[in-house]
Amino acid sequence: QINVLQAKKKFEILDAMLSFMHAQFTFFQQGYSLLHELEPYMKKLAAELDQLVIDSAVEKREMEHKHALIQQRPLSFFQDFSYDDSKVEFNVDAPNGVVMEGYLFKRASNAFKTWNRRWFSIQNSQLVYQKKLKDVLTVVVEDLRLCSVKPCEDIERRFCFEVVSPTKSCMLQADSEKLRQAWIQAVQASIASAYRESPDSYYIE
After folding, report:
1. Distance CA 157, CA 117 (A)
2. CA nearest 140: which of 177, 183, 175?
3. pTM of structure
């Protein structure tokens, strides 16, 4: 019996080893078949990757070139590059009564002090704004003759100015120093014009 068992061991162990090798061969062959089907997609992806690397290098060179050009420009260019003179003019004798108009940021009077961009205008001795073109005008200052205007530097934003009335104050922000000065001058000119037009005793009192 011992001799029989020893004789069976030789081919049984060899058979198990051969079965294991077949299983390994089948596993790797199936893996190769699966990846071989993905080979066209992998080649396409590799080509796209090469193009992305080239595009990224080109964009980097362009940005470095633009950055070098920007650094060479004078400071005055950044202050006035997007504003022409027509945008900062005001006219106290305008036929439609609108002395000046344009976008300004207005600081809310609530606890959050949020800033909202609104279309402001000076008309009929009043400072008004509206959210949209056809919205009803919201009056910020009812009579400019009772107000004063001053630039504000000690604030977290640039180009700010404040319109102060007897009952409240309104903090506004322009898009540039030139626009801020234009709005301040427009308010001051409107105040002076309103006094010239009707210097009655009521407002003097």
Report:
1. 14
2. 183
3. 0.54
Q: Tokens 């081919």 map to which residue?
A: 11
| Chain centroid offset of residue 1 CA | 90
Digit-coded pLDDT (tens) for 33-74: 999 999 999 999 999 999 999 999 999 999 988 888 887 776
CA distance 203 to 205: 5
* SS3 (DSSP) at 116: strand
The two three-digit tokens of residue 140, written as one number: 């910020």
CB atoms within 10 A of CB 45: 11
How many Å apart are CA 106 and CA 129, to the nearest integer?
A: 10
Please, what is the Cα angle at 139 between 175 and 103, to 5 degrees? 15
Residue indicated by tokens 């071989």: 36
Q: What's the token pair of residue 45?
A: 């992806």
Contacts of 183 (CB under 8 A, 6+ apart): 100, 102, 104, 161, 172, 174
